[in-house]
Amino acid sequence: MDGASWTNDLSWVRGYENVLGPMNQLSALFHQKYDGLVQADASVTQRADYQEALLHVLLLETSCFRYWGQGTWTDYASEIYRRAEALLQS
Question: Low-confidence residues of the chain, pLDDT below 50?
């Protein structure tokens, strides 16, 4: 969806690899840890660890980090990623 937004001629991708890369990595880590567990027992989605990890993934995937993707917002995104990665590796 390169350029398909209110940004019109601006790329959604170019120049934002430092933001989009961690988003993709965290999503992959989340699915790697939880997809099989949820398929085996849907009640996993009610567990606090699942919900906390999902919250971090959804927060990191917000478009705010893409729109304001450099500077302070990048720092916020990096911290969300760090915390979520720790959750997913525990």
Answer: 1
